Amino acid sequence: MKILISADMEGATGVTWPADVLPGTPQWERCRALFTSDVNAAALGFLDGGADEVLVNEAHWTMRNLLLERMDDRVQMLTGKHKSLSMVEGIQHGDVDGVAFVGYHTGAGAEGVLAHTYLANSITGVWLDGERASEGLLNAHVAAEFGVPVVLVTGDDLTCVDAEGYAPGARKVAVKDHVSRYAAVCRTPARTAADIRAAASRATALAVRHTPVTGKSFTVELEFDAEHLAAAATVVPGAERSGERRVAYTSATMYEGIRTFKAVTTIVSAAVEEQYG
Fold it and tell me: Where does the pLDDT of residue 216 fall: very low under 50, low under 70, confident under 90, or very high at 90 and above?
């Protein structure tokens, strides 16, 4: 049995504001250890539950945040950027039995600690076939196309609520309770590590591959905080204006959909000016 852990940082233990997740800040250095503790606890839990292999895919910002030297020796880590499937890279090879979303968060425009979708700001909302979409929802649809169930989700309490919509059978662990976008009531790392490890151990039983979900197209719509960003996004083939600050595109598969999403957000981030956005 092989488990893939998609590891994001905004939903990690103790993380509540931008400097906690911005590479190079003193706060980020401190929170890297907390992030690593969450991910290692999940890996240990899956190994406790009978997994033979755990691959951690770094999914935050530079994708070079976790402290490899603090991970269990049985774990392997995929680190670095420019990966074909970004946050769920590794799921496409046919050998993953279950995926865990560790350190996840709610989507752009929703309540939640450090809520966003791909870009920290600029994007004010994302909809998948008319449903407001978090990164978890988008990635869950990618996983489904490869027959891989989402078995564990960790983050703030609202992230766990969000996960009920795209992975109702998965185990959920809230490591903090939302107060505002930049505040939360946090558990200690010792407590969250124990909770995550126990949930991951139980979640191992859910790691059963299913028939890949195919034959469905997907329409993704993005809303930005400025009109020129929507204009910039139309550089990507298939992305068309759907409103003054919106673009939409339709993909034959979610594999194509998430890759197009990455292209759109990359173009848009390059069009953001420092002072005016």
Answer: very high
Query: Which residue is associated with the tokens 């490890």?
Result: 197
- Residue 111 neighbours by CB distance under 10 Å: 13
Those residues with Cβ within 8 angstroms of residue 9's Cβ, 6 or more apart along the chain or in another chain = 15, 20, 21, 31, 35, 60, 61, 65, 103
First-to-last C-alpha distance (Å) of the chain: 46
pLDDT digits (tens, 9 = 90+) for 43-68: 999 999 999 999 999 999 999 999 99
How far apart, in whole angstroms, are the C-alpha atoms of residue 219 and residue 128? Answer: 6
CA distance 140 to 79: 21
CA atoms within 13 A on the CB side of 14: 20
Strands 171-180 and 183-186: antiparallel
- Contact yes or no for 16/68 (Cβ under 8 A): no
pLDDT per residue over 250-260, tens digit each?
A: 999 999 999 99
Residue with tokens 């960003």: 229
In this structure, the number of other CB atoms found within 10 A of the CB of residue 60 comes to 20
